[in-house]
Amino acid sequence: MNAFADQQTLDDLNIPGRHKNNSIARLFDAVVTAGGRKVMDELFSRPLVSAVDINKRSNIFKYFGKLGISFPFSDKEFSIMENYLASGNGSKQLAGGWNIIWSKVLELAAQDTEYAQLNKEVCHTIALLNRFHEFAAALPQEESPYQVQLTQIINTFSHPRLRWLKQKKGVKELSLAKLIKYDYLLRNCLHEQMKVLNSLIFHLDVYIAVSAVGQKKGFSYANALSKEEHTLEIANLFHPAVANAVGNTLSLSQRNNVIFLTGANMAGKSTLMKSLGISIYLAHMGFPVAASMMEFSIKDGLYTSINVPDNLDMGYSHFYAEVLRVKTIAEQVAADKNLVVIFDELFKGTNVKDAYDATLSITEAFSENRNCFFVISTHITEVGDSLMERCDNFLFVYLPTIMEGVKPRYTYKLSEGITEDRHGMTIIENEGIIAIINASG
C-alpha cells in the first residue's frame, strides 16, 4: 500500500513497474541481484516523509555517485551464494553434517554429484564473502554517509566464528571435516549474520545502480526541508524519460501556492506537469531528480488528475469519473494534509460553460489551503482572467506557441502570464482533414 500516492497518481506519472515501457522504475532498473530488485520495488512503494531520512538516503547515493564504482558481483555468481545461504535454517544442530557424510558415501559408491556440488557452493560463498569484505574495506570512511552500513559489515566479518574466512581465501576444495564445519557455520550458526550481509549487499546494489543512473542522466539530488518550511524551488526541471527535454524553473510557497498553467495543445503542459510530479515523488524517495537543483519541504502526499479513465462497467461517464477524482482529492485536502495536487485540464468531459464555472469555483476553493501546492492547467483562459482579479496567491504561466507561417513551433519554455494561443484548427487544416472529408463526398 502506497500511502504517499494513490494508484491513479502512480499510473498518471507512469512510476511503478520495471517491465513497463518508459516507466520511472524501469529507468532506474540497473541493479544486478534479484534481492536488489526487491529492495528497489520496496523503495518505489514507500516514499519517505522525513526530511532527515530523505537527506540521509540521497547523501548515500551522492557518495557512491562520486566514487563511480561498479557492483562487485555478477548476478549469476551472486545467485549461487544467495541460494546456498537461503537454504539454511539457523538450526544449532549438526544434522546437516550427517547428510554431508552420507552424500560423500554416495559419491564414492555411486558417483553421486551432490557432495561435489555442495563443496563447490561453499568454496564459492567463501570467495564472494571475502571479495565483499575487501570491497567494503576499500570504501572511503572519513565523514562517510555510508558509515552506519560499513560498521555493520565490519562487525559482521569480525564475528569470532568468521575469523577463519580470510584464511580460506582462494580455496578450491574443502576436506570433509572442513566442509561440515564451514557449512554448519555459514548456513546454521551464522544464519542471521548472513541474512544481514545479504541485505547489505542488496542495498549496496541499489545504491550503486541508482547513483550510476543519476550520473549518466545528468540528474541532481534534492535537498529536503521540514514540513513547516512550505517551499518548493526547482531549476531546469525536465522529464526524465524524454530525450533532449527543455528545462523549466518553478517556485511555490505559502504566499504563492498555485500555478495556473495555460498553453495550446501540444505546447507541453502535460509533460511539464508529469515532470513536476515525478520529481516530487523521486525527491521523497531520496533518488536523483531530473533537474539541476531542487529544494523542497516534505509533503504528506501527491495526487494527480491527468488521465482519468471512464468506468463503463459502473456506468461512469468521463465527466463523472473526473468529478469523483476531484472529490477524492478534496477529501484528502480537507483532512488537513500537506499535499501536492496536479490537475491537467479540469472537467474536459463536459461543456465549456460548466467547465468554466466548475474550474473557477473549485480552483479558488482549493487555493485557500495554503499548506498545499496546486498546479492546474486549462484551455479555458477566461478562468485565469477571473482568478487573477480575485486571488493574490496564484502564479500565472504559459507555454507559448510560435507560428512560423501556418506551422506552429513549440518552445516548451515557460513564460509569465496567460496565453490566448489557440491553434487547433490550424493543426487540423495542416493535416488536410477537411479536404479528405470533402474529397470523399
Automatic annotation (TrEMBL):
Signal peptide: none annotated. One of its GO terms (molecular function) is mismatched DNA binding. SMART domains: MUTSac (SM00534). One of its GO terms (biological process) is mismatch repair. Keywords: ATP-binding, DNA-binding, Nucleotide-binding. Residues 256-440 form the DNA mismatch repair proteins mutS family domain. This is DNA mismatch repair protein. It comes from Pedobacter psychroterrae.
